[in-house]
Each structure stands twice: as C-alpha cells, then as structure tokens.
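Email to the structure team, subject: Tc1-like transposase DDE domain-containing protein model.

Hi all, the expression group asked for a predicted structure before they design truncation constructs. Nothing fancy, just the tokens so they can compare against earlier work. One-line instruction: predict Tc1-like transposase DDE domain-containing protein, return tokens.
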Amino acid sequence: MVWGGISTRPRTPLYHVVGNLTGVRYQNEILQPLVVPALQAIGPRAILQDDNAPPHRSAAVNTFIQQARVNRMLWPANSPDLNLIEHMWDEFCRWVQQHHPPPANLGQLLQWLQQEWNGVPRAFICNLIHSMRQRCVECLAHNGGHTRY
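Reply from the structure team: attached below.
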C-alpha cells in the first residue's frame, strides 16, 4: 500500500506502507512527519480530509489531531464521492498502467509509482480540490448518497 496527500500547494511525498496500518503507525509514520508539516505550510485555514478508516479514527490519532491543532473535515458515514484522494488514485493507477509494463518486482513498482506521483499534473490536483464545494453541495442534496462524482 502507498499513501499520499494532495493540496493546492506541493503534494506530500508518496509513502510506502509496509504491513498493516494501525492508528499508532498512521500517527507516527504519516501524520507527524508528512501531514502536519504540509498543513502548516498551507496555513491556518488548511483542512485535513481523511476518511473513516479505523486507523484514521483511532483514539490515539484523534488525540494527536487535537493536540496538533489540525482542522479536520467532518466525514459523513456514507459519502465516498467526497473523498478526493480516491479519484486521484483512480487516475493515478491509469497513468501508471499507461506508462509502464507490469513490474518485475516490488522495488520496480515503487520506483514507477514515485515517478508517476511526482509527475501528476498540478492542474489535475487543483481541479479535484476546487470541485470540493460542488461535491459537498451535491452530497447534501442527495442526503449523503452518491452523486455524479
């Protein structure tokens, strides 16, 4: 598994998660070294958008988020259309498959993933982020159900 964060500013590095991602690992390997510095670089109005995956909502992570004074988006239980990173991963996978044959090994795959991650057009990321307001409007209009996104 890999993890990455996007924003209208520079994206986070792509991070290879080895094994199961627990709340403690999410805090220590992703939030602390990658997310908090990225949010601080954006400024006080930055908002973390993560989903309801168990590692994201563990007690340790919730405490850390509060202590780090991170603004976190409230996440509706059944609204996958709001998760911008899922749309990013869909497109990202297509780019990797278009530009590379099946990898010979994990190391080659990780190299190609990092290469493609660094090459994701900034305009694509900004368009995703700027679509968030309309995604929220449509989500509310559909009572949290699926939207055209």
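The CA atoms of residues 84 and 128 lie 6 Å apart. The chain has a mean pLDDT of 91. Ping us if the truncation boundaries need rechecking.
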